[in-house]
Structures are given as structure tokens and as C-alpha cells.
Amino acid sequence: MSTFTEIHALAEQRSALNARLRSLLVEGLELPIDAGMIEDDQPLFGRGLELDSLDTLEIVSLVEEEFEVYITDDDKSVFGSINKVADYIVANRPRP
Questions:
Q1: Which of 3, 42, 44, 82 is deepest in the core (most CB within 10 A)?
Q2: How far apart are CA 3 and CA 57, in angstroms?
Q3: What is the Cα–Cα distance from 42 to 36, expressed in whole angstroms?
Q4: CATH classification of the domain holding 48
Q5: Measured between alpha carbons, how far is residue 13 from residues 16, 47, 90 in Å?
Q6: What whole-number distance in Å separates Cα of residue 59 and Cα of residue 51?
């Protein structure tokens, strides 16, 4: 069973990952909003951030460069939200 300290550390790591993803999207896609305005479960496409298919390619490139994780064409559901991208990174990140 995990201790409070371990759970707290994992929560802080996840929060930092989500914050980094928000910053990467704003900077890499040159979005005209503050990274703090993006919610973790906000849709990235459609009525959310209104990104398009070209943005998908840029997100794949940003994630690969920053986290050494490649998102394939089969993994389209990854682009649902910041949380979904973060889940994918955590599950597929190379282990040290």
C-alpha cells in the first residue's frame, strides 16, 4: 500500500507534467492564450481549444522531442485532453 508521501509525490509529478504539456502546447502551437487557462480535461479539438489536424502533427513532434514518446496513428484518442496526453506519456515513457 502506498503511503501518503508517495501518493503526494505522484500527484505533484502529474501536476508538473500537465503544466509542462499546457506550456508546450501554447508555445509550440503559438496559441493566443495563457497556459493556465487550459483545463486538464478540456478537449483539445472541436469546442475545446479548436485545434486542427495540422496541430496534431505538431503535438506529436512536441511530445516526441520533450518526452521521447511517439504517438502513432492508432493512438488518436490520446488527443482528447491534456490528461489523456499525460496518461499516454506516463504509460509509454522510456524507463531509466
A1: 82
A2: 39
A3: 12
A4: 1.10.1200.10
A5: 5, 28, 10
A6: 10
Tell me the angle at which helices 82-92 and 53-67 cross, rounded to the nearest 10 degrees. Answer: 40
Cell of 27: 508555445
Read off the C-alpha cell for 50.
Answer: 479548436
Helices (H) and strands (E) in the chain, counts: 3, 0
Give the predicted TM-score (pTM) of the model: 0.90
What's the grid cell of residue 36?
493556465
**Residue 96 pLDDT exceeds 80:** no
- What residue numbers bound the domain in which 56 lies? 4-92
Asked if 83 and 91 count as a contact pair (C-beta separation under 8 A), the reply is no
Sequence-ordered list of residues with C-beta below 8 angstroms from that of 68, at least 6 positions apart, any chain: 93, 94
Going by C-alpha positions, the residue among 46, 30, 29 that lies closest to residue 81 is 46
39-50 tens-digit pLDDT: 999 999 988 899
- The set of cell numbers assigned to 7 is 501518493
Q: How many domains does the chain have?
A: 1
